[in-house]
Amino acid sequence: MESLLIINGSPRAPRSNSKRYIELFTQSFTGSYDQLQALNYSKSTVNVDDYSDILLVFPLYADSIPTPLMTFLKIMSQSPKTRQPTIHVLINCGFLEPEQNIIAVEMLQFYAKQFGFSFGSVLMVGSGEAILNTPFSFLVKRRIRKLAASIQTHNPLCQSVTMPLPKSIFLSASTKYWLTMGAKHGQTKETMSTMSIEKE
Amino acid sequence: MNLILSDQPLHFLTSLPSDTVVYDLSQQTIHPCVGCFGCWTKTPGKCVIRDDAPNIYPKIAASERILYISHIWCGGFDTPMKTLMERSIPVQQAFIRIHQGETHHVQRAVVPKEAIILAYGADTQEEQTLFKRLVERNAKNMSFSSWKIHFLSPDTLQEAILEEVSQWNHS
Ligand SMILES: Cc1cc2nc3c(=O)[nH]c(=O)nc-3n(C[C@H](O)[C@H](O)[C@H](O)COP(=O)(O)O)c2cc1C
Fold first, then answer.
1. pTM of the model
2. A162 lines ligand 1 (CB under 6 A)
3. B2-169 maps to which CATH number?
């Protein structure tokens, strides 16, 4: 039977951008699916062998895969398989350039080859912390619809998307965003710009 | 300052060059980052999780030379080193700059550093190439002014560590 397992690989899964990307995905995906947070995997009883496809949705962390997802992948690599499920990737990064995600995607291609999975579709999102809250969210939604279709029709597709902004505009928009986040905790531009690390 | 970050005990390192600090991550308690961004927006420069990581990332920032000793998994640093790297984002500000033509974070007081990576467990050319490309990316976010990677098997690791550190005694 065809079915999809969606993994939220974000270390802050319940409040994550990955969760929002998954919500958009499931609005377009018409097949059957289950969802899981990588953070909870050791506690759950999911059998990977029940699925034909696995969609990993996660943020770029230090230029690669966040540790909770690494832990999940290690457990998954050991689980008995009678078929070769296909791994798909929906990755988002904070920086503007979606290409900054490429190494993490290649690590997963390597993983798939190493541990007997097939590799399918990819969507790399740049400015992933912000884009869904901007008028450019339609660009992501469109790509997510295509991702869902590509998984359902078994036609692997590699896509990337970001805010179509000059870097200088992205810089000032992101500064504004972070200042608003800091202000919620009583921080100012000066306090947030401290050069001190672990000092009063 | 010199720093040695290792994912395994280094009992055989009996004498250290001056101004050198060693952390055996297998003896440290370092929880995974929870992605709260508190280190940027709530307590700038400090992680809200008060385990052993807040002792280590200031030393990463202050070091001119870092020796990383790490197992490699799927072309990346394996979990112990990767967990520390993720927990080290308090050394950066929330604010973004353009660096080498791409968007990256502004660094706090982080000294440009030479990184030497003794990597074990990456046995194929494909995995080694992937790891080299990862480190090239890490360099932009982690203030590496230069880096060297040596791929080793577990049985040649000790010798390589001793060799590397003995060179420091002379530099
Ligand atoms: C510890 C840590 C490391 C990160 N490393 C990167 C990085 O290397 N490159 C990048 O573009 N964004 C990086 N980010 C930003 C996240 O990828 C971005 O905020 C993403 O939208 C988070 O998605 P999530 O809410 O689904 O977890 C990092 C964030 C954290 C907390």
1. 0.97
2. no
3. 3.40.50.360
